[in-house]
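Let's do one together. I've listed all components of the complex below, 408 residues spread over two lines.
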Amino acid sequence: MDLKEIQELIKLLNKSNISEIRIERDNFKIMVRTQDQNSPVQVVRQETLMAPPVIAAPPIQQPPAAAPSTEAVADTSRLITIKSPMIGTFYRSTSPDKPPLVNVGDEIKPGTVLCIVEAMKLFNEIESEYTGRIVKILMENAKPVEYDQPLFLIEPI
Amino acid sequence: MSTTVFTGKVVHEFDSLVSTNEYAQHLLANEKVIEGTIIRAAHQTGGKGYAGSTWDSEHGQNLLVSIILKPVFLLPKRQFFLNQAIALAVAETVSELTYSEDVRIKWPNDIFHNNKKIAGILIENAVKGNQLLHSVAGIGLNVNQQQFPAHLSHATSMRIMAGKELDMKKVQDVLCEKTEYRYLQLKSDRIEELQKDYMKLLYRVLEECVYRANGVRFNAKIVGLTAEGKLILQTGGEQEVYGFKEVEMVL
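Okay, and this is what the predicted structure of the assembly comes out as:
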């Protein structure tokens, strides 16, 4: 994960009402948390293969001082973000009595239906363009989504 | 005989289906489907309205049809225009065949005559990346049904409006023609005409009436729509924007 992606993550967190995001990979962990509404976002990065387990980074305006190891970049920069192509309401299943279309850890391929975004009574099945595995679902069921808002993190396989 | 180029040229007809939209999705998942293909059923066992509300329909009395379209030219965020095209086509079909001027579109896409519902629309799209792959426009149009159960006291039909029985095939053909006309208007980017015509038929546009939002009733009038199709309501000098489900018109 590079600086730009971390900044993106912080921006995302600030815009949302989520208070914490954790991403865990084999040799890399990151946790971003807002303390309260007025304080800046706190970033905790963890690279388990490296010596210092926790690096606290300064607030959003300044990028974190420590550059990530090339190893971590190689690993996590591969993640693909799937974004909402429209404004609407995000649903994880086709109807309330059905199980979620996908879960974290599921393997997906082009054409796999990931979620439903309903917009003004038009129902949109959002299909994957990629082959990969779902690493993170960034939205809660039945919550409003904005245009271009990240919905899923995908690890290509 | 229908005078369309592609809409309704391939018809899959059934006596009974769970829903025509569901069968359309099944077709799309399993074979190459020509744009304009329609699926029609005399009866649906699981016809869907919005969020599980069921569409009660007497066997063979109503037009239950799904039209498969491939609006790959339309950005997903502009899809409300497709909704407007289909709603206009259904409203114009009813108007033409019942010789009635007073057919309205209740936002976002129910079709009304004299405060009674005559048709419902349910559109399902498939989106990949930033492209609409295909759309299934499911339409339930009350044609010859004359009696409605008590809980559908707000329903009417073309037969009730016209005072005579209608030929189902004729209704289907006219619906295909109107749909194709509006769809090609969208495809050729004549959005302004589409918008203007939709606003002309919008139920209670610029009329002061009662709405309910967040449990509160208030008087307001529709003054316009946003690009995403949200409703702009005006109360006094204040304007407020509402999405579907965020506001309800009190009939």
